[in-house]
Write a structure and sequence with these properties.
This protein is an alpha+beta fold. The chain is built from two helices and seven strands. A seven-stranded antiparallel sheet has the order 1-2-5-4-3-6-7. It is elongated and about 95 Å long.
Length: about 150
């Protein structure tokens, strides 16, 4: 009576099956993903992105203090180091609080000018998690943008 060992062939077949299954899953998942540059309006999106970068660069050059504090509420203060910079030429300061993992929680708000000082601030409540804070305003016809990322 001869004994044949089929276990090695079963194990080899199982390994080949697992490799083929994983390669198929990788191909399937990579074909399901859409890429930004393949969208029909990628050129316009690139121009908007360039304008946003220029606004952020102006924000770095702008001599102002932007503080974002979290106590019971989020308090955002935009206060220029030179008080005359934010005179009446700045009508509004826009605050966008963006939640990367849940766009339903995004909040947009116009900051109110403080009566006693030449600054803008607004208290608001944000839930725990990661937030992208965008603070923007227009001064002398140019958009100025500050970005911060907060984790509560």
């Amino acid at each position: 009576m001869t004994f044949k060992n089929y276990w090695k062939w079963i194990i080899v077949a199982l390994v080949i099956f697992i490799v083929i299954f994983h390669l198929g899953a990788i191909v399937y998942l990579s074909n399901q993903q859409t890429y930004e540059l393949t969208s029909p309006d990628y050129y316009q999106r690139g121009q908007a992105y360039e304008q946003e970068i220029q606004a952020m660069n102006r924000g770095r050059e702008f001599n102002t203090e932007v503080t974002v504090e979290q106590q019971n509420q989020l308090v955002v203060t935009v206060k220029p180091v030179e008080a005359e910079l934010l005179d009446s030429s700045v009508k509004e300061v826009r605050l966008d609080c963006l939640r990367p993992n849940d766009s339903k929680m995004d909040q947009n708000l116009i900051l109110a000018r403080q009566v006693d000082s030449n600054s803008f601030s607004a208290p608001m409540t944000l839930s725990k998690g990661r937030w992208h804070i965008d603070i923007s305003f227009t001064l002398n016809g140019e958009r100025i943008l500050f970005k911060k990322t907060l984790v509560f």
